[in-house]
Amino acid sequence: MPGATGELLLEWARRADAGPFSSIGVLDRVLYDSYEPFAALAGAAGVTSRVRLATMIAIGPLRSTAMLAKQAASVHGLSGGRLTLGLAVGARTEDFEAAGVEHKGRGKRLGEQLAYIRGDVDADRVGPSRDGIEILVGGLSGPAYSRMARYADGYAHNGGPPRAFANAAGRALAAWSDLGRPGKPKLWGQGYFAFGDTAQGDAYLRDYYAFTGPFAEKIAAGNLTSARAMKDYVRGYEEAGCDELVLFPTVADIEELERLQEAVA
Amino acid sequence: MNVAIVGGGPAGLYLAILLRKLDRAADVRVLERNAPDATFGFGVVFSEETLGALRDADPETHLEITDTFARWDRIDIRYQGRELVSRGHSFSAIARKRLLEILQARCRELGVVLEFGVEVEELPDADLVVGADGANSFVRGLRDFGTKVRPEGSKYVWFGTDHVFDAFTFAFRETEHGLFNAHAYPYDERMSTFIVECPEPVWRAAGLDELDEQESLAFCEQLFANELRGRELFSNRSLWLDFPKITNRTWHDGNVVILGDAAHTAHFSIGSGTKLAMEDSISLAAALARRRWDLEAAFVDYELEREPFVERTQDAASESAAYFGRIASYSHLEPIQFAFNLITRAGRITHATLGVRDPQFTRVLDGWMGGRAVSPPPAFSAFELRGVRLENRFELVESTVSVSPEGRVSAEEAVVPEGRRLLRLSHAGRRGATQPRSRGVDLPLVDGWPVLAPTKKPYGPFGALPGEPDEDAVLRAFVAAAKAAQADVLEIDMAHGYLLGSYLSPLTNDDEDRLRFPVSVLEAVRAVWDGPLAVRLSVTDWHPRGNSVEDGVEIARALAEHGCDLIHVEAGQTIHDDRPQYRRGYLTALSDRVRNGARVPTIVGGYLTTLDEANTIVGAGRADLVLLDLPDTQIERTLKSSSTVRLGEVRA
Lengths: 265, 652
What we know:
The complex is a heterodimer of chains A (265) and B (652).
Chain A: H1 6-18, E1 23-26, H2 37-47, E2 52-59, H3 65-78, E3 83-88, H4 93-99, H5 106-118, E4 134-138, H6 142-151, E5 154-156, H7 162-178, E6 186-193, H8 198-208, H9 215-221, H10 227-239, E7 244-249, H11 255-264
Parallel strand pairs in A: 1-2, 2-3, 3-4, 4-5, 5-6, 6-7
Chain B: E1 2-6, H1 10-22, E2 27-32, E3 43-46, H2 48-57, H3 59-67, E4 70-72, E5 75-79, E6 82-86, E7 91-95, H4 96-109, E8 113-116, E9 128-131, H5 138-142, E10 147-161, E11 168-175, E12 178-186, E13 192-198, H6 200-205, H7 213-223, H8 225-228, E14 233-234, E15 241-248, E16 252-253, E17 256-258, H9 273-290, H10 295-325, H11 335-343, H12 351-357, H13 359-370, E18 383-385, E19 388-390, E20 396-402, E21 420-426, H14 471-484, E22 489-494, H15 499-504, H16 516-528, E23 533-538, H17 549-561, E24 566-570, H18 588-597, E25 602-604, H19 611-619, E26 625-626, H20 634-641, E27 644-645, H21 647-651
């Protein structure tokens, strides 16, 4: 986000690794003042030893299939096998234009990318090894759930109240059962928070999601701005069967991590 | 604060009351195009839950409203000369006209300016403009709310009658043109609402498209003379209509907000329109109070709070509308099952919840299904299929055997699960030669075996090009596997884009007669297998150019004619990039369509995780048998999923 220096990102990763957290997550967007997710995770890999490194999510079709596989496998290798690769089709046409990639056909291309990475296509020619990359797929459409159940290890939800997550999780489990996958999919959720300058956090979300029109206000209204709201959110997600909850700061301040740690303690 | 509310229906008036209560300094006007005593429709229904909300929001009007309520707790279902009664449902209703009188009087008392006979032609000049002007909202049309309007359900017409019903009554009348049904309920001590409904083709066949208002009233009066006990129907511009399902991407824009029918409609057959509208008013007023007239923040709160309720209600209403649209397909059901199906149509009442409200009703249903006065719930009733007796409706456990080595999905081995076995004979077709399912699905093996299909295209990305099937060899393999099979129910796999399934779909087979080969396999297996024989079928391809549900029902009918005893209902996966609609129980509606449309017994899964779902599905006649995803059958599912067994191992 604007104002987040590379130094701040790495310090965040370092402290998360030392703290009680189990993963750190990054977002993906071209036309914004934000870091490229695989580069950010590669940086984080160097200063952490324990936490999982997750893209929540990376927009697969912005990248060519082989390059996506190579970037992901590189982060996975550099981190000693800690990558959780969340992928989805993305929502902003402008990012595709800026990247010089067709927006149309993005769902089909994501399907190919998943089949390529999970199916070890070209694995003999395109290293490093993809072995053990945990794959998540996000999205709320029927095809998204089906791609998730066909190729991935779990589902990456896009945030919102616990009941929205529970609803999506039910669909993910139904898809998993339909594709005859053994066991259960991993269910990942996410949320936004600001404990310090909450107005600044809300403003960031309005700006970041301006492309959604009226929906931006609703996302900003969902910003978790008190310890109480955070506790309720975490409990709600736990009850809905969430395996891993990624909480994103909306204010570029390392203090936010400390306060999050207190809130969820 | 200057507020202009367009529309003087229950939502608009109620909001005006609440806003004046919130802030006496606010200037609140209601602009209504009709006269104060003009009203359309007759009575409106409320639930207990809504009444509680009305009491909290404004005790004065709550008292007056409940004073004039008609209350009852029964649903009567009149079907094939029988009258079935279910109790414990607690409904309340009021004359719409009376409701408006009460709200108007309260508005005046609180100093709301009521302007009647005002045709609004542009956005009123005010700090806050509210579109409470109904389904055809004028205000909504002035801004971009992302409005969608689609007709849903059957043709319907809204009457009143002076026969006072003493229950919510569903009546069904068979005619030479097809089935008509009526929804009737009392709304005060002398009048009832009486809505007549029938599918569009029936309506046309009966010539109702050519009758005028009086003639169609006379037609309905005569048709339902028994129910009306010789009383009259009254018209109030009562014309046959299509119900418009209205959704909006957002309910606010700048200082304009919409609510009630302007924002969302819910099919009349679940009677929730007025309830939703007045709850909207409560939510919006509370948000404006909480946010101290910060409009944008209040509108966001209002939408966030109301959207989930509205969406759930609209989903249930659509289920109910669709149910009445295909009502004729249920005419073969026993009255008690027909009634249970009707009561559970929208997915809001289940066997368990009805059992709490009306234990007598579920006892009768269970007794009918179990064949004894006191029987366990429907899922525990026995079921007989071609001489094989199953002790309950959920004991079958799936397993799969590939009919030939090249017909395997993967090289994995599987353990055959314990239990009464539904043994599936499958040929993977172009979905064969893939990596283990634990890793993913349709991930081709690097050094796989050749795959077969009636199409030249691979199934998914990086898949092998299929070769042309040697049909004689495939048929012989199915027959050989059937001869060797040991199972309670044998099943032929024609679903999910496996070999026989790919024959059935226009997406993967260009032939005119797509049933030819699958049916020849079915007949050949039928000839060597005496026991129950099922076919697993993708009832729809979930793709605009693939088989629709209607196609699937026809295929099921044809398979039954060629010796299939049971359809195992599945959907999709015919091609890898279909457009599935997943949710809990996503196959139940499809099973209902096959069982009651093609009149073939069905077995259905679709992520059913509770016995209550099983009881409701079986009790309502939506399926005969179910496959459950119970938490404690997790292990079995694990086995099921890696379910391809090498030939000789099952035979041994």
